[in-house]
Amino acid sequence: MSGLPARMTVPPRVLRRQWTAPEGWRATPAGMWAWLIQRAAAILLLAVIAAHLVNPFRRGVQAALLALALLHALLGVRALLLDFGLPVRWHRALFVGALAAAGVIFAAVWILRWY
Q: Cα–Cα distance between 11 and 71 in angstroms, integer?
């Protein structure tokens, strides 16, 4: 022994949540919700695109395709804005703004469609 103190190892901290209980989701930040919704929209887009290729004239498929594409794109723009240096305190405002913009654009396009 050289007289050096023994290295102490600290066990890593692991986040434990009760995912099945509402209390486990209460303190979840807006950034995680935005990430989760964007990933879910991407997966659903794959299924909706396949349904659109089978029957492109079904209005429900068209609505789902438009809504999911808008949601996925606007949440992606939100992520890009945060990557380019907008403050982290804007997470919630950008998340709500992306959801609101997706809803407004969807309603405008769906009401004013040309057919």
A: 40
